[in-house]
Design brief:
The complex is a heterodimer of chains A (169) and B (98). With 169 residues, chain A is mainly alpha-helical. In chain A, helix 3 packs across helix 4 and helix 7 crosses helix 8. Chain B is an all-alpha fold. Chain B is rod-shaped. The chains are: A mainly alpha (169), B mainly alpha (98). At the A-B interface, helix 2, helix 3, helix 6 and helix 8 of A face helix 1 and helix 2 of B.
Chain lengths: 169, 98
């Protein structure tokens, strides 16, 4: 059964159809949230569960203007922002300065570790635009930022990432 | 030196797939538990409302008009005639049937 049919059934309250949708969409959403949470799988899974729960409650509001996946990503990102703001954990604008006095990354620094050192909007923007192949417009919509801001997050994130990987190698 | 194309390749690598391992079932279970709780809460609130109405409704004032109506009907000649007509008709019908 295709996604549109499953969505129609889930909107009518069919929980089996919604479970099928969750099964189809859980991997990219959990992967995205794992990036946002810097690899905290338990937290990412909790947020993913909350995201699907909210999606179920608001599924009638989904009008198919974007894809279901991008709608989920938007809810998931907002959930993570709320979680981070409540705990005052995540500076939203500044990432780790690669030239600051923090310990230099070791030789095993891979893309995930480098990503973890970027600011939240940078790693979200890079993940959506590259690993998940969203267009810039879709990614801007998911992150609820103007297109120009999204592009600057991508450009700044790339630059920081390149420096981090250079330091590692 | 990390070239732009190497960076693109690294960034474009898809995220590692995450196995479901009961995750979707867990989500739906949580949803059904929540919905059952909501139904129970709604019934509980309705029951509490009924109890409050029963306890605090001004029953004397609510039933007083009916007492007056019953008393007035008892004194009403047309009502008495109507009752007598019903009783006589019923008795007459039984007499004819026998």
């Amino acid at each position: 059964m295709n996604e549109a049919a499953l969505l129609a059934l889930a909107s009518a309250g069919d929980s089996a159809a919604f479970e099928a949708l969750v099964r189809q969409r859980q991997s990219p959403l959990r992967g995205f949230l794992r990036r946002l949470t810097r690899g905290d799988h338990a937290l990412a899974d909790d947020l993913a569960q909350e995201t699907f729960f909210e999606a179920w409650r608001k599924i009638e509001q989904f009008r198919g203007e974007g894809t279901f996946a991008s709608w989920l990503a938007r809810i998931g990102y907002r959930r993570y922002l709320m979680w981070a703001r409540q705990r005052k954990l995540e500076p939203l604008e500044e990432g780790v300065d690669v030239t600051d006095g923090s310990p230099a990354p070791d030789q095993r620094l891979d893309i995930e570790k480098a990503m973890a050192r970027l600011s939240l909007p940078e790693r979200a923007a890079l993940t959506l635009c590259y690993a998940q192949e969203y267009t810039n417009e879709e990614a801007a919509d998911i992150l609820a930022v103007p297109l120009g801001t999204l592009k600057s997050h991508v450009a700044r994130g790339r630059e920081r990432l390149r420096k981090l990987l250079e330091v590692a190698s | 030196m990390t070239s732009e194309s190497e960076l693109d390749t690294l960034l474009a690598a898809p995220l590692a797939p995450v196995a479901d391992d009961g995750f979707s079932h867990g989500v739906v279970t949580k949803i059904s538990v929540h919905e059952r709780a909501v139904v129970w809460f709604e019934w509980a609130m309705a029951a509490v409302l009924c109890v409050l109405v029963l306890l605090f409704a001004p029953w004397d004032r609510l039933t007083a008009p009916f007492e007056t109506v019953a008393f007035n009907l008892g004194l009403s000649v047309p009502f008495a005639i109507a009752c007598a007509a019903i009783a006589l008709s019923h008795a007459g019908l039984r007499w004819f049937a026998e």
